[in-house]
Design a protein that fits this description.
113 residues; 6 helices
């Protein structure tokens, strides 16, 4: 016996609406899941590290090796996407042969205590 499967127009409309909803939901989720822009202070810190690194002619790989950090972790710090701990900043400063304060002093300029 042959069975004929037919989907009513209402069910088809609901299916299309459901698919459109899923696509819209997926798009909205992607837009809202984007990371917020980095804190300007972290961007400034990262630029300071990069400036010192480039002045010394170190590649990211060399600085990562000298400081004991991972290559990827150092990239995140330089791009302001990670907030390094004080000990991490001390390691980076030691690898760059500078005082740790040289990395962060510019962050407090213009702020009086």
């Amino acid at each position: 016996m042959l069975y004929s499967i037919s989907i009513s127009r209402t069910r088809r409309d609901h299916a299309q609406l459901f698919m459109a909803f899923r696509l819209a939901h997926r798009w909205c989720r992607c837009v809202s899941d984007r990371e917020p822009s980095p804190d300007p202070r972290l961007l400034s810190l990262g630029m300071q590290i990069r400036r010192h690194r480039e002045e010394r002619g170190y590649s990211l790989e060399e600085l990562a090796e000298r400081s004991g950090l991972s290559f990827r972790g150092l990239i995140y710090i330089e791009h302001g996407q990670r907030n390094p701990s004080v000990l991490t900043l001390v390691d980076i400063a030691a690898a760059l042969d500078i005082a740790p304060g040289e990395l962060v002093n510019h962050l407090t300029e213009g702020h009086s205590a």
